[in-house]
Amino acid sequence: MASHKRIDEVTGAETTGHVWDGDLTELNKPLPRWWLYTFYACIVWAFGYWIVYPAWPTFNGYTKGWFGYSQRDQVAKDAAAAKAAQDKYRTAIAAMPIAEVKKNPELFEFARDGGAAIFGDNCAPCHGRGAQGAVGYPNLNDDDWLWGGDLESIETTITHGARSGDPKTHDTAMPRFGLDKILEPAQINDVANYVRSLSHLDVDAAAASRGSAIFADNCAACHGADAKGNTEIGAPNLTDAIWLYGNSQQAVVHSIETGRGGMMPAWGGRLDPVSIKMVTLYVHSLGGGKPEPKKEEGESEHKDEPHEAPK
Q1: pTM of the entire predicted model
Q2: Cβ-proximal residues to 168 (8 Å cutoff; 6+ apart), any chain
Q3: Of 43, 97, 100, 142, which has the fewest Cβ atoms less than 10 A away?
Q4: More reliable by pLDDT, 304 or 191
């Protein structure tokens, strides 16, 4: 008996002959042969992957595969190779003073770039990704330094911190002139006007005049008679228009009243000495780093000769 093909009038395609609801038919359009062969080949390929690569979990691990490949092992090998590539540079940095590292272009580039990564992981949460600082956290791009901006001073600050509890930390603190009743509120207001006038801000001239004498009696011992500050004790320069806690009258009054007293962790217990040197060189290179202090007369000159970079 000959079969009778049914053709859909709209599409012109053959149908399966099935009809639903009186007029709904199913077109007979099988997948192309090439598509089916490709699909079957993928299935075979998948079985191959199951055999040669790790694939199935087991009660005590997973199937290892004929190749014995492991991404974790590969990452560990890559990390070990990267560490080995860095070791010659880190060894050289460890063996020389930080000022000599800066004089060696190859070592300095390695240390600065590595220091940027260390800074991003450890210092950026407070100082910002760009080291721009925030209220209460110093901007490390400018040339205003509480505890000194030369390489040795920055390295010391990073290693021991400020008011961190480390035995060698920077630990001096500003008196709390208001909380401890050292000055009266009116006197604090006058001193705040005087301090703000040093940065050419709008102030009460009469109050600033009175504050000048109060400053000389109570503040100049730390900040200096010229208010230029003292990095030996962390006393900031009050004349450079750079303000750690803000320059409003209210902010300056609050600083005088409470003494503020920010804190920085001691990184010596968290980072190794080479990493501290690297982040020091990075911070110093941001634009505000100070030159190294001049050597004492008669000090040996050969110490400053640059070392060769590792071969």
Answers
A1: 0.75
A2: 156, 159, 160
A3: 43
A4: 191
